[in-house]
């Protein structure tokens, strides 16, 4: 029985819960998807998703609720963790444009520019290419961070907008600039959750 936790302190939590449930169903796997708020809920967890939202707030609340250190440790031990948008910022090793109080899990060897897209194009949708599927995927970008540098050879691109990398994986960790939870296409969630099976 798979237990997926969506960090549920701020951001688009419900959308990720829906997408993860649907993905498990499509994979034919029985499991539960929980709204993760407290460290006690990490017992028996198989995978974690960090949603989009506002990364300073998510960082602050993860520290306040005692989730920051245990989630970091689980990620270091190999637990599958996926972060989208603000979640990508949380996973990054280096962040350009962070606020001084902001803390990062540092589980993904990338440098991310926090508010990279200018105001004119602060939100857009565009077809992106996935490494694991022939069909294009609708990338929803909302004041998206930008992956500006891959900092180790262990980081592999898995999504591209034109020739620019917009999604990466490093063993058990996935970071995406866009929001797969805001489409009804669960291919990315399925790819991620296979890591937990
Ligand atoms: N730019 C936002 C931040 O810094 C992230 C935006 C998003 O998650 N849609 O947190």
TrEMBL record:
An annotated GO cellular component: glutaminase complex
Entry EC number(s): 4.3.3.6, 3.5.1.2
GO biological process: L-glutamine catabolic process; pyridoxal phosphate biosynthetic process; pyridoxine metabolic process
Superkingdom of the source species: Archaea
Reactions listed under catalytic activity: aldehydo-D-ribose 5-phosphate + D-glyceraldehyde 3-phosphate + L-glutamine = pyridoxal 5'-phosphate + L-glutamate + phosphate + 3 H2O + H(+); L-glutamine + H2O = L-glutamate + NH4(+)
CDD domains with a match to the protein in the record: GATase1_PB
Keyword Hydrolase: yes
Active-site residue list: 85 (nucleophile), 179 (charge relay system), 181 (charge relay system)
Positions of L-glutamine binding: 53-55, 114, 142-143
Pathway where this protein functions: Cofactor biosynthesis; pyridoxal 5'-phosphate biosynthesis
HAMAP family, per the entry: PdxT (MF_01615)
Functional description taken from the UniProt entry: Catalyzes the hydrolysis of glutamine to glutamate and ammonia as part of the biosynthesis of pyridoxal 5'-phosphate. The resulting ammonia molecule is channeled to the active site of PdxS.
Family as reported in the entry's similarity comment: Belongs to the glutaminase PdxT/SNO family.
Protein name, as recorded: Pyridoxal 5'-phosphate synthase subunit PdxT
UniProt lineage: Archaea, Methanobacteriati, Methanobacteriota, Thermococci, Thermococcales
């Amino acid at each position: 029985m798979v237990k997926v936790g969506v960090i549920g302190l701020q951001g688009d939590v419900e959308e990720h819960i829906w997408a993860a449930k649907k993905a498990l169903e499509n994979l034919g796997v029985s499991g539960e998807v929980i709204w993760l708020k407290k460290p006690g809920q990490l017992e028996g967890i198989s995978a974690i998703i960090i949603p989009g939202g506002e990364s300073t707030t998510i960082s602050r609340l993860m520290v306040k609720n005692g989730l920051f250190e245990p989630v970091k440790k689980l990620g270091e031990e190999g637990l599958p963790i996926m972060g989208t948008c603000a979640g990508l910022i949380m996973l990054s090793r280096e962040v350009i444009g962070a606020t001084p109080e902001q803390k990062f899990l540092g589980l993904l060897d990338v440098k991310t520019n926090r508010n990279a897209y200018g105001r004119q194009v602060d939100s857009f949708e565009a077809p992106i290419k996935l490494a694991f599927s022939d069909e294009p995927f609708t990338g929803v970008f909302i004041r998206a961070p930008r992956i500006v540098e891959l900092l180790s050879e262990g980081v592999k691109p898995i999504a591209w907008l034109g020739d620019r990398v917009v999604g990466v994986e490093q063993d058990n960790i996935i970071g995406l600039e866009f929001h797969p939870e805001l489409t009804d296409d669960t291919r990315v969630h399925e790819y991620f959750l296979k890591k937990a099976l």
